[in-house]
Amino acid sequence: FTVPTKINYTWPNPQYDALEKLLYEGTRLDGLSLSDSVSGCKSRDGQEGRGTGNVAAEWVRFAFHDAITHNIDDGTGGIDGSLFHELDRDENRGQGMKDTSADFLKFAGRFVSRADIVAMGAIFGMSSCGGQNILPYGGGRVDAQKAGRCGVPVVEQSVDQFTEAFRHLGLNSSQAIALTVCGHALGGVRSVDFPNIVPPSSDPHQVIYRNFDTTPQFDSRVVTEYLDGTTQNPLVVNANQTVTSDKRLFESDGGAAMRVFQNAGDRGFKIACREAYRVMINTIPAGVSLHQIDILPAKVIEPQITIENGELIFKVDLRLTQNLTQPVPLDRTITLKWCDKRGSQSDCNGRVNTAQFAARSQPTQTPVTDQLGLSFYSYAFRVAIDIQTSVGKFWFVVDNNDGNSPTTYNNGGANYDFQQDSIIFLPRMSQTKNAGKTLHKMVVGVRIPLVSTRVYMKTYEVAKSNTEQPQEKSTTLSLDGTIPPQKGYAFFSGDVSANLLGLTIDIGVDTLDQSYKEEYLNARVLGCQAGIIAPTTVSTA
Ligand code: HEM
Questions:
Q1: Does residue 485 have a cis peptide bond before it, meaning omega lies within 30 degrees of 0?
Q2: CA of 100 to the centre of ligand 1 (A)
Q3: 155 touches ligand 1 (CB under 6 Å)
Q4: Is 470's C-beta closer than 6 angstroms to any atom of ligand 1?
């Protein structure tokens, strides 16, 4: 298995940012939450005929089924999202698998592979049900474009067959027992999918969901109930002896592995399972590497120039991580400082601009962040600017007004270098054109006097099915005669057909001698007025 490499984060790093946001805030760029589906160790809502499966359990089983088809002999397979192409196989039977793939699909995109989400799903599952955070998390898994080999163990098999299946994952027989008992610490078996294991109810609308132990939480009950003989685990105690795979496996070493777990106690069990899961989620195809995604103490979010209320605005949010045991300094002052990009005082030659934040909010967080004892505060900066001077490098100074000296966040000394203002996205001039919300007039601004040879928007839509990849489309935008130039920009537009939910865009302009682009923007179409945060005063020094 692979150990994630630690990297030195510097902005910009869109893949790191996207994975960090999903892991610790739980959301994709447009705010939809993945971790909400599982936090609090939730169950499905039990729609008719589908039962109330434990979401965390489904996500962990999904990771296992993706991982186990690794082949240690040739380095193929592992957590590579091939499972999305294998869901029609009998070895991957079950409503939980289908529901999980639907949960995950919406979150994969440009910088977040399905395989990275599969791994993250297991982490969320574990931490939301009282298990331990599996950190550090490594991101960078690469998605398989087709099904991989078969090889998920099924209940009817012999211990030798189980041993061989787990050997392919790189595990010996006691590690196989450990991983299985850790997996079966959550969830259970559904009558609808496995009537040979859990006999169905006489009411055809009812699904019987038989848990592996008496608690929905991740704890060592699956071990203690097995050893004290009270277990109702349907893979141990069953009238149908062909399906008692856990019994066969747990007995295969004379119960030694189970006794080690019992002696370790509940905490020891959780730690051992964390390590077993770590191996599972970091088993990936040879040649793929993982980089560590740590929570960022200070994170710059979506710096951009746009037009709001007829003003050219520079917008940026600073997200600060807050230790839950420490009070949030309410009278904290946070100053955004920046240099002009152009003009006689560019690069802070004789002038530094400053402004205070315009609004504060509390971003969402995940069970992983909860377990770290951390939360977030986000500070929104909005300042009116002039394109003649624009924005170059910026940084922040945070003063908690508690007698300690202020902290400067400047991207590790380099400052955040606002990359380009030659092409800007204008969500407040863009419009949705049809009732089905699939056709949009998208507007961008190109800085005058650039002479463009091509202005375009690339859209990246969320994949529509398991076997498809996110859809990528490019639309050429043309000069829009209905929007007069203003604030130093000429406006280009074009009709883009796409579902805005989860949509990200790149915008770009080519001129005769140069190309400018802005990548991975949240494709918003906003009203002219709604939700505008009024800009704060700019001072200069
Ligand atoms: C010999 C090996 C294994 C066999 C034969 C086996 C078999 C099964 C079966 C038949 C189910 C019922 C699924 C359903 O009703 O939807 C199940 C559930 C589950 N398995 Fe395994 N399993 C094995 C090993 C593992 C391992 C190694 C893990 C993870 C580390 C794991 C994690 C889970 C989880 C979390 C569930 C509950 C799913 C839910 O409640 O939706 N299993 N297993």
A1: no
A2: 14
A3: yes
A4: no
Task: Identify residue 432 by its one-letter amino acid code.
Answer: T
Burial 131-142 (b: 16+ CB within 10 A, else e): bbbbbebbbbbb
Phi, psi of 417 (to 5 degrees): -100, 105
Whether the CB of 121 sits within 6 Å of ligand 1: no
Question: Following CA atoms 120, 126, 130, 135 in sequence, which dihedral angle do they give, to the nearest 10 degrees?
Answer: -60
pTM of the model: 0.97
Cα(first)–Cα(last) distance of the chain, in Å? 54
Number of H helices, E strands in the chain: 10, 22
Q: What is the pLDDT of residue 329?
A: 84
pLDDT of residue 351: 95
pLDDT for the residue numbered 49: 64
Closest ligand 1 atom to residue 93 Cα is 16
- Measured CA to CA, the distance from residue 213 to residue 210 in angstroms comes to 9
> How many residues appear in the chain?
541
CA count, 13 A, side-chain hemisphere, 214: 8
**DSSP H or E stretch at residue 159:** helix 159-169
Answer for the pair 262, 220: CB distance below 8 angstroms, yes or no.
yes
Q: Which residue has the tokens 């505008």?
A: 532
Tokens 């004892």, located at residue:
373
Per the CB < 8 A criterion, the answer to whether 424 and 445 are in contact is yes
Spans of the chain below 70 pLDDT = 46-51
pLDDT in tens, 453-510: 999 999 999 988 888 877 899 999 999 999 999 999 999 999 999 999 999 999 999 9
Q: CA 476 to CA 153: how far, in whole Å? A: 50
Rounded Cα distance, 6 and 292, in Å:
5
Separation of 65 CA from ligand 1 center, angstroms?
9
CA of 96, closest atom in ligand 1: 41
Helix (H, G, I), strand (E, B) or coil at 535: coil
Which of 180, 192, 222, 269 is the best mutation target for the ligand 1 pocket, counting ligand atoms within 8 Å of the beta carbon and taking the most?
Answer: 180
Q: What domains are there in the chain, each with its CATH number? A: 14-291 (1.10.520.10), 298-417 (2.60.40), 429-522 (2.60.40.10)
- Could you tell me the distance, in angstroms and rounded to a whole number, from the CA of residue 178 to the centre of ligand 1? 13
Interface predicted TM-score (ipTM)? 0.99
Whether ligand 1 lies within 6 angstroms of the CB of 272 is answered as no
| Residue type at position 429 | M
Cα 468 off chain centre by: 19
**Lookup: tokens for 127:** 């931490």
Q: Name the DSSP letter for residue 304.
A: E
CB 34 within 8 A of CB 28: yes
Residue type, 175: Q
Cβ 187 vs Cβ 225: under 8 Å:
no
Q: Token pair of 334, please?
A: 């946070």
Nearest to 518 by CA among 387, 431, 422: 422
What is the pLDDT of the chain when averaged over all its residues? 96
54 contact partners, CB below 8 Å, separation of at least 6:
41, 42, 43, 44, 129, 186, 187, 188, 216
